[in-house]
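Researcher: I've been going back and forth with a colleague about how Guanylate kinase might be arranged in three dimensions. Neither of us has a model we trust, so I'd like an independent prediction. The organism is Deinococcus detaillensis, in case that matters for your notes. Sequence below.
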Amino acid sequence: MSATLQTTERPTHSSPSNSAPPTTPQPVPASRLTHQPQRGLLIVMTGASGVGKGTLREKWLNDQDVFYSMSWTTRPARSGERPGLDYHFVTPEQFEAHAQSGGFLEHAEFVGNRYGTPKGPIDAALSRGQDVILEVEVLGAMQVAAHSSEAVLIFIMPPSLTELRRRLEGRATETPERIEKRLARAREEILEAHHFRYVVVNDDLDRAVDDLCAVQRAERLKAQRYSAADLQSIVDQ
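Model: Here is an independent structure prediction for Guanylate kinase. You can compare it with whatever you and your colleague have in mind.
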């Protein structure tokens, strides 16, 4: 199977006869686009635990000049995770203090652990024209969408719940009971995926990364991103 990108809109179809092979979509830096609106994209990537968000994100963002917003979490680091590079691992007390001070764009609890996204660095990066990538839990993604109309929500879908179970068990980092809790939560989340702007099925890593690049490129080209001032500057030149 190969990864597929889906949107909630009806897809268009082209004739397959005598057509050239599709080109691989590539992210386009703002500096290379003529009259590119200055504000960056706020891209929110989410999906069920174990679907491979971290692996996708690392390959997708390799060599891109983007701002990856690192989440805070109260869960322990897994094998191979790097504090300060993958997550900010904090105590429940530190997390609560930051939440009470209004320091998170979103925060949520997931299977007994808390996750949150610090908001100050995000606003700064968007204002200087950098795309911002958030990798958050589904509830957190919905919070971001409720507070920001510019958020681009992408749901990373497993090819099946059976495959998701295999990946979770392959981690060998959690008890069977916690895996069952994650799978029960995943069932609920998958059934709500139609609320997201895009769905990328992660059953082939390279294809899924290509799909994420395609989303990024398409969002940059949306007419809604051009303000009246942007358009006026074009006709004035």
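Researcher: What would you highlight for our discussion?
Model: I'd start with this: The first strand starts at residue 5 and ends at 7. After that, consider the following. The longest helix spans residues 205-220.
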